[in-house]
Amino acid sequence: MDVEQPTQQTSSEIYQPPDIPANPQYPFYSQTVSLYEPIYPIGWSQPVTNSEYQHLQHLKNKYVPSLRGVLMNYKNVALGENPGRKGAAASDDDPTTLKSVNEFAVGFGWITAEVDLFVPSRGAWMEGSINLQTEGHIGVVCFGQFNASIEARRLPSAWKWVSNEDPEAYGMEETASVITADDHGVVRQIHSTGFWVDGDGKKVKGKIRFRIRNFDVGVSGETSYLSLEGTMLDREAEKALVKEEAATAALRKGTKGARKIQRRRAPEFAMTRFMDEAEQPAEAQPAEAEAATA
Predict the structure, then answer these.
(1) In this structure, is residue 3 part of a structural domain?
(2) What CATH number did the domain enclosing 151 receive?
(3) Model's pTM, two decimal places?
C-alpha cells in the first residue's frame, strides 16, 4: 500500500524530506593532509612553491582519489622529509630535506597542507537548485557546482507530473530542460514536455534538499568525473523501496528466458566533469545550467 509522504517546506520554500534534521550537515570537510610526492629538480630553487605547483594546483576543483573527495581549496603548504609540519619548510626561504631513492632523478618529500574537501557518501545531505524536470527525473545543481539527479519514484509521493498538453498546465510558465550534449559537459537548452507540481498544486521550482543514495567517481587522463543520485524519501520509505527493487530484480533474474539485468545507469545530467581550464570549451559556461531553471 502506498502511503503519502508529507514533504516538509521551510518558510523560504525549500523542498526537503520530512525527517531532515534542523541543521543538516553537508559533506564539506577541512583537514590537514600529507602526501608523499617526488619533487622535480627544476623546482628545487623554490621547493615549497613548486611542490604546490607540481602536485596541488592542478587538482583544485577536481575529484582526487587519494583524498576521496573534490579538492575545493588548500592553504598553508609545507614540505619536509616526514609527514606533518614538524621540521618542514613553510616557505621557500626555510631549509628542508628531500630523500633520494636509488637512481631516481628526483627528491621525495611530504607535502603537508590544510585542505577543504567535498566528500560524497551515501546518506549525506545535499542542497541545490532544480535545473531540469522530466517525467522520469529531476536534475539539481548543488552548491552551484555539482550535478545530481533524483528519479521520479524517489520524489515525494504527493508530487505529480503535469504534461504541457494537460489543461492543468494552462496559465503556468513554461519549463525549460537541459541535456548533456557532448563529452565535454556542454549543455543545450531544449523544450520540456511538462513539469512537476507539489501536493498543493504549485509548480515545483527553486531549492531542494535530499540525501545521496548513490554516487560514482572516475578518472580519465586529466579529467575526473562525479555522478550523484539522490532521494527525497525518508529513511524508512527509502529502505522499503530498495527492498522492493531487490525483490523485483531477483524475480526477473529467476525467470526463465529473461534478459540479463543490467545495472541502471544514472542519467547524463547527474554527472559533473572536472577538467583543466585549457580543456574547457569557451562556450561551456556554468550559467547555462542555471539559466534553464524554471
Answers:
(1) no
(2) 2.40.50.140
(3) 0.79
